[in-house]
Every structure is written in C-alpha cells, then in structure tokens.
Hints:
By secondary structure, the chain is of the alpha/beta class. It is built from ten helices and eight strands.
Amino acid sequence: MSVKQYILDGIKKGTMHMALLDPDKQTPEEAAEIALRCKEAGTDAIMIGGSTGITTENVDATAVAIKKATGLPTIYFPAGPHALSTKCDALYFMSMINSTELKYVIGAQIYASPIIKKIGIEPISMGYIIIEPGMKVGEVGKAKLIKRDDIEGAVAAALGTQYLGMDIVYLEAGSGADVPIDPKMISAVKSEIDIPLIIGGGINTPEKAKAAREAGADIIVTGTFVEKCHDENILRDVIAAAKGN
Ligand code: 1GP
C-alpha cells in the first residue's frame, strides 16, 4: 500500500499522530529509540527532517534504523532538493505556498523531480503554509507569514492548495512555536477544504493536542516534544490526546 493510501485510510478512522525526528539532533540509534517509544504510545508514522545539517547519509541512516525498530511508515520532510533520501518510504513533495521566493514555491520541486523519479520514492504533494510565529522555517523559507488571527488568509491559502491539485494541506506555526495554530483557524480551514489537513508547530501538551484534534486536524505533528520527552506517561498522554484515544 502507498503511504498516501495509508494516510487516507488512517484519517477515516480518526486523527493520526506523526512524530517528527531531526537526523541532525540525534544519532540514528537514538532516533530509533524515540520512534519506538512513540510507536508504543500510538504514533502512526515517523517524519524525518530538519532545517540544517541534513545529508542523504544522516537521513538514510535514521530512516533505516527507525524502520528496523518500528516498521512504521517513514516520510521524508525535506528542507530543500538536496539530500534526497532513498530509504524513506515516501517524501512530502512540498511547496511553501506563502514563500516570497520562487525556488521554495516551485523551483526546488522542478529540480528534484527527475531525481525523485529515478530513485523511485513515493512523492506526496503538499501545500505548506506558514502561520505566525513561523520560527526558523518561516525565516529560511522567506515566508510572508499569515497572521495568527488571519483566518481568511489561511483559508484562501489552503483552498488554493487544494485547487492546485495537491494532496494535503499543512498549517505550520514553526518548530518550537510558543503558541500552536489557533483552533479557530484550524476549524475554519477544515470546514472549507476536502483534502487532509496537517497541523504542526508548538504542540507539546495533551491540551494543545486535544484542541487541534477537536478543531478538525486530520494529522497532528509533534517534533520538539517527542525529541525532548523522557516520560513515557506524558508521551502517551499527548499522543492519545492527538488521536482522541
Ligand atoms: C515542525 O510542525 C513541526 O515542522 C513540529 O513542530 O517541533 O514545535 O513540534 P514542533
């Protein structure tokens, strides 16, 4: 089964949780240990990516270790067209919808497409929409940030993503954001689009995860939290709240 189909089947049953692990922040063995803890707590898939220090070698080694430890689908979450992985099951073929730089909207994608075809990794197209505070990814991607309370702006960007024919919308507050996406924005976007909605950035408590799920997130991503959490009960609580278990 394709990873896209796994996602489509999964979200029919309820909100999914994905853990995001940065290959530059821990060894492949440590990443595999975290991924296994997440799997035991209910995670549905592992995303692999980061803004800096990413190489084909560290992505591939991390993907192989995670796959061996968990058997969960691994999805590469690339920061650019360099360091494309041959070992992840799929990659988000993403366009930063509100970047002011052409290369992040379509240039890198054109460059990477023949390589993706050659290595045979499954591309899952995704419109990546950066909301305030945006954090590092907003800066690096030169995003024209959508304001936290600009619900119309977020809905327009998400609908535009759908009308461009993409598979998924991702509303991103930025890794380590002090506030996640406002649930009011999530529910407004969810009610206007027909494609799956991913929410990420700053989700680190059961309350925040529950709020995102109840507002309509199809997939909730946590990165910083799963990398830092050493308490299995808290890990379980956040993932359960994301999934509604
Ligand atoms: C970043 O949305 C993800 O791309 C995850 O953010 O690290 O804040 O969980 P956090």
